[in-house]
Amino acid sequence: MILELDSISFAYPDGASLFEHVDLSLEAKEFLLIRGPSGTGKSTLLRLLCRLEEPTEGTLRFDGIPYADMPPAELRRHVAYVQQTPTLMDGTVRDNLRTPFTFKANKALVSPDDPTLQQYLNDYLLSGVSLDMEAKQLSVGQAQRVCLIRSQLLSPRILLMDEPTSALDPDSAAVVLETARRLRNEGMTILMISHSETTPDGVTGFLKIGGKTVERS
Asked: 8 and which of 13, 58, 61, 175 could share a cystine (Cβ 3.0–4.6 Å)?
């Protein structure tokens, strides 16, 4: 199992509980959609899986290793998170795409060259975006795709995607979903939050969240 949740509970500081004693095992090379009503904790689950939040009880494991035994930076090298609201720093598109390669945990990785970065942009229908463009000039939809590319460049084993197509036009959304399917076929595990009733090609199952439970179907 690539991910294991052992009796995971999560509550806010005010005591409001989202999950209680969740047991779940996820295999490698799955493509799972996460669904549930608003406010039930879909985004919080992804933040727990990349250790941006900590459970109030229970143990999370990656490849059999408890999260507590892995430095967060090392974990996030393997478990990448693309949040719904894109976050880009000041600087160019190139600067933002190369940022992960400046981190100590990724020092052994080779930063991609400009032709490679531009090809990623083209593949995501961003051919009109220059690597020299200031990232703050991008639209929300463009920034969302740049954040997805940035995470993909690290070749993580797990990609967590929070509504990655919410700000995209139909053609761009189709490219993102097709990329997710392809990455899963190449061996990556995909967990994606989606409010759409349409099931993308390649999905292998669902996680349903509600009533303080997380259930697989």
From this structure: 58
Pick the CATH number of 3-216 from 3.40.50.300, 3.30.428.10, 2.60.40.740, 3.90.550.10: 3.40.50.300
Q: Which of 58, 26, 41 is nearest to 211 (CA)?
A: 41
Rounded to whole angstroms, how far apart are CA atoms 26 and 28?
A: 7
CB distance 5 to 24 below 8 Å: yes
Residue of 83, 38, 73 lying closest to 192 (CA atoms): 83
Given a contact cutoff of 8 angstroms between Cβ atoms, the answer to whether 120 and 153 are in contact is yes
What whole-number distance in Å separates Cα of residue 191 and Cα of residue 161?
6
